Amino acid sequence: MPIIGHEAIISDLKGLITRSALGHGYIFVGPAMVGKRTVAAGLGHYLEKGVYEPARNDKPNREDGDQEVLQDMKIIDLAFMKMLDPDASGDSIGIDATREVKNFLWQRPNASPRRTLIIDNAELLTIEAQNALLKITEEPPASSLLILVTSDIESILPTIVSRLPKIYFGAATQAAIETWLVETEGLTRAKATALAKRSLGKPGIAWRILHDKAFQKNLELAEAFLKTAPAGRRDFIKKLIDPDDFSLRTFLDAVIMTLAWETPSKAKSAFWHKTLKLYEGVNNFSLNPRLQLEALMK
Predict the structure, then answer these.
(1) Per-residue confidence (pLDDT) for residue 163, from 0 to 100
(2) Confidence of residue 206 (pLDDT cuts 50, 70, 90)
(3) Is the separation of the CB atoms in 54 and 3 below 8 Å?
(4) What pLDDT was estimated at residue 62?
(5) Cα-Cα-Cα-Cα dihedral of 86, 145, 158, 30, to 10°?
(6) What does the pLDDT look like over 56-107, one tens digit per residue?
(7) In contact, 245 and 280? CB cutoff 8 Å
(8) Of 107 and 230, the one with more pLDDT
(9) How many CB atoms sit inside 10 A of residue 220's CB?
(10) What is the pLDDT of the chain when averaged over all its residues?
(11) N- to C-terminal Cα distance for the chain?
(12) 161 or 68: which carries more pLDDT confidence?
């Protein structure tokens, strides 16, 4: 998807490059799905091609695989780690990620002044991985650029946070999302307005609703989960978590989003906070999905 908003951030990054003042590492922090990763990938493209637009190298077989592949940029995320180790389980980015970082950044650039390495959802890095990453941030190669993308900076070691400048991202305007949906996605103005409003200032939500079948399925499951009567909850949860690819973190994402679309009430607010607390726990601990979801619905 294109970059939507964040013009001031992009202008500042371009200015740093022009002045030869670009650092060797940054943390892009802000709400999920507002475009942090897209802006980071755009920076890699700008360094290599001179044009600030998205380019993704992490999954050549993805639906948007027609985007230009760069020689000197790599993105590490959960999906990339699954490619390295198909038998890996859980929602964490382990020590293998930091080995990839080091192997990539210590090579000389081919077509760009920098080798750009992006770690998406960096809050999922294990403590072991973060400690190894700390050594890289202390003595980065001269031609390297490391960008950590996160919506939860509290989950990143203070020693890493103190070494990397932070760039804060806010939500996109509803008008900007509407314009993109009409001009690029071909929606009518009425449908674009409705979807932009539902996106809560996060273009990534709109894109995933339109294009990501797994995301659409999780939204359907979240809605069914919230409507399930108490007597049927245990059986519903058992079926929900049965697939091998079930992710508690991804499912809770969909639950939180579905709650955000509903009419506020005191009971819903309490459940919202309870769900957010569980989501935070998923990021930091290995939890039993069945027990946690059953406890959530009590």
Answers:
(1) 94
(2) very high
(3) yes
(4) 45
(5) -80
(6) 664 444 444 445 689 999 999 888 787 777 766 667 888 989 999 999 999 9
(7) no
(8) 107
(9) 12
(10) 89
(11) 39
(12) 161
pTM of the prediction?
0.85
Rounded Cα gap, residues 69 and 61, in angstroms: 12
CA dihedral (81, 83, 88, 92) in degrees, to 10, reads 20
Tokens, residue 57: 């190298």
CA distances from 113 to 50, 68, 105, 107, 137 (A): 11, 18, 12, 12, 18
Pairwise CA distance, residues 55 & 247, whole Å: 27
The token pair at 103 is 């192997």
Sole residue written with tokens 């339109």: 210
For residue 222, give every residue at least 6 positions away whose Cβ sits within 8 Å of its Cβ, in sequence order, or none: 251, 254, 255, 257, 258
What secondary structure letter does DSSP report for 142?
T
pLDDT at 268: 80
Q: How far is CA 115 from CA 41, 52, 99, in A?
A: 12, 16, 15
Model pLDDT, residue 87: 66
**DSSP code, position 151:** S
Structural domain spans, the chain: 7-168, 174-296
CB 164 within 8 A of CB 137: yes
* Side-chain-facing half-sphere of 205: CA atoms under 13 Å: 26
What's the pLDDT score for residue 259?
Answer: 87
Sign of CA dihedral 77, 80, 84, 90: positive
Residues listed for the chain: 298
Which CATH code for domain 7-168?
3.40.50.300
| Helix pair angle (233-241, 289-296), 10° resolution | 150
Helix-, strand-, coil-residue percentages of the chain, each rounded to 5: 55, 10, 35
Which SS3 state, helix, strand or coil, does residue 31 take? coil
How far apart (Å, rounded) are the C-alpha atoms in residues 105 and 142? 9
- Looking at the DSSP bridge assignments, the partners of residue 117 are 74, 146
